[in-house]
Amino acid sequence: MNFMLEIRDLTYTVNDETGTKTIIDNLNLDISDSKFTVITGPNGGGKSTLAKLIAGIIKPTSGKIILDGEDITEMSITDRALRGISYAFQQPVKFKGLQVFDLLKIAAGKDTNLKMHDACKYLSEVGLCARDYINREVNASLSGGELKRIEIATVLARGTKMSVFDEPEAGIDLWSFQNLVRIFENMRKEITDSSIVIISHQERILQIADEIVVIADGKIKTQGSGKEILPTLTGTPDAVRAACSKLEEV
């Protein structure tokens, strides 16, 4: 199988008052084309750190990250974005004075010349009425759920090879979460030559995964198809965390 993303012997350590702490520990992982992959595990296990390493927000202490055969380990966030990696934060960034349409144009890229009807289409795909949002400022007047959906619309506008979402359910209400799951279900159906990676504890998101990867103590504890792994993790988010914690002890 040809893998889109190859992670080889990846390690990330930090220094604090207690000494050196290993967050990601000699981790190896392949994420292939046309897959919807969910990375889960106990809090503090290294999931979000791995997402930031993939996006280039932080640099590994050692190891390699390879995208489509090219070593991107030392590349900047910008260079990785140009090669097709997008990253959605737990808390979407607000841009005072910047309208939604302008943000979508920036996301699409200067060579795209995004038209208004295309921008409206992306907003519609994430369940937002274009007429009500296209000229809104991306600021604190928007709810957490609205900001999350606008951020996903920018990912759609970019059309990247790999979209990484770090706990997209964080900070949003149940109604917004249910809409978010429907958006991800639609994105999964339309995957062709790209991949979606989501960091999440939520069972509803785990249920639509092609692949599930469980990380604890900076290591992969188990991984496999969603049908194979999900039965060992089913339950509420707390139950999922508890199951992951048991795996951590193995």
Q: Any key phrases for this structure?
A:
about 250 residues; Rossmann fold; about 35% helix; alpha/beta; 10 helices; globular; four-stranded antiparallel sheet
Topology of this structure?
Blueprint: E1 3-16, E2 19-32, E3 36-40, H1 47-55, E4 62-67, E5 70-71, H2 77-82, E6 85-88, E7 95-99, H3 100-108, H4 116-125, H5 130-133, E8 137-138, H6 144-158, E9 162-166, H7 174-189, E10 195-199, H8 203-206, E11 211-216, E12 219-225, H9 226-229, H10 237-249
Parallel strand pairs: 3-10, 3-11, 6-9, 9-10
Antiparallel strand pairs: 1-2, 1-4, 4-5, 7-8, 11-12
Care to describe what's here?
- The chain is an alpha/beta fold and 250 residues long.
- The chain has one domain (3-249): P-loop containing nucleotide triphosphate hydrolases (Rossmann fold), CATH 3.40.50.
- Helix content is 36%, strand content 30%.
- The chain contains 10 helices and 12 strands.
- The strands form 3 sheets. A 6-stranded mixed β-sheet has the order 6-9-10-3-11-12, sandwiched between helices. A 4-stranded antiparallel β-sheet has the order 2-1-4-5, covered by helices on one side.
- A hairpin with a 2-residue loop joins strand 4 (62-67) and strand 5 (70-71).
- Helix 3 (100-108) packs parallel to helix 6 and helix 4 (116-125) crosses helix 6 (144-158).
- The protein is globular.
- The protein starts with a strand and ends with a helix.
- The model has no long low-confidence stretch (mean pLDDT 85).
